[in-house]
Amino acid sequence: MNATSPEAAPGRIVLLTTSHRVAPGLLSWPAWQALRTADRVLCADGAHPQLPYLREAGITVDEAAPTAEQLVEACSGGRTAVVVATGEGEPALTDGLARMAGTGRVRMPELELLPASYDLPGARLLDLVQVMDRIRAECPWSSRQTHEGLAKYGIEEAYELVEAIEDGDRDELREELGDVLLQVVFHARIAEEHPEAPFSVDDVAGGIVAKLIHRHPHVFGDATATTPEEVREHWLRTKAEEKRRESVTDGIPLGQPGLALAAKLASRVRTAGLDVPLPAGEGVGYELLATAVRAAEAGADPEAALRVAARAYRDAVRAAEGVSP
Hints:
Number of helices: 13
Oligomer: single chain
Radius of gyration: 31 Å
Number of strands: 5
Distance between the termini: 78 Å
Order of helices and strands: EHEHEHEHEHHHHHHHHH
Structural class: alpha/beta
Strand order of the largest sheet: 3-2-4-1-5
Helix content: 40-55%
């Protein structure tokens, strides 16, 4: 037997990986080609979600977990073996193949890693929903939480997100965005259990998708907008059509911080073209109201401006104490 004879050909090993975030059976064309032309298809996990769909497509799958040596032997004579990887990625098998190749004494088959399905952007959100489902079911603390009990955490996480933005800390920003996202998924998971009006995270996402499309006719429709001001006009007009409010003040949450509340009211008044004098009164509250309205008219965020000043005050206090910033 010479080295170029078919009997001596080392063959080919294909490690086929799939994403659990993609529906089983939705594989790439190269993956289907490899599966259909393989001499043998193996999978160590008899409960692998792809197996029913592969068998339905006429692919014979052996439920086996061969060693590296056994797999190399199975490929002798130019044969091709496809290994449908489990969720862990077959580390024992790949380590064994690497050790065999490292000896230099074995003529190794051609090794190929073939991704059969790919995650789309946002796919990790499916993991978050799955993890939240399990935590809600199994965690003694999380399983007892309510919308009302979690409300304070939503406020805290929103403030921590704002702080990360103002600090310019990218790592902190990523983490705080995750904490805010957790609040959304947690509340949506709790909402699924409501006896009369349940909804899920898919309903939440579907609602905001529909709202965004409706309020961006210049992107998804025939309207045109070339400036941020025109975009704002589209947004406000479609929002007014949706809400059909009696007053420009409708929908403004009165529980938000006072400066932000005053600035929001002033913004609504200005947008509506109303001429409403500030209420007459004495005391610091009315002085702060006037300051917040002036800030809003100047295009400044009074809450953010006050936080900047408060931080400067904090630094001055620490300096007076001899404490480093």
